[in-house]
Design goal:
By secondary structure, the protein is mainly alpha-helical. It has one helix at about 1-35. It starts with a helix and ends with a helix.
Length: about 40
């Protein structure tokens, strides 16, 4: 039981690491797109 839990946690960490590495570079483009797509009101 404990082994499957640790495998799940390892899978979560392994899947989050690339996202955390790429996010700072993509963030400026993402915020620019959100500001461009927002409607002034």
């Amino acid at each position: 039981m404990a082994l499957s839990e640790s495998i799940k946690m390892a899978a979560v960490v392994v899947s989050l690491v690339p996202i955390m590495c790429v996010y700072p570079f993509v963030q400026k483009y993402f915020t620019k797109g959100v500001m461009l797509g927002s409607v002034k009101g």
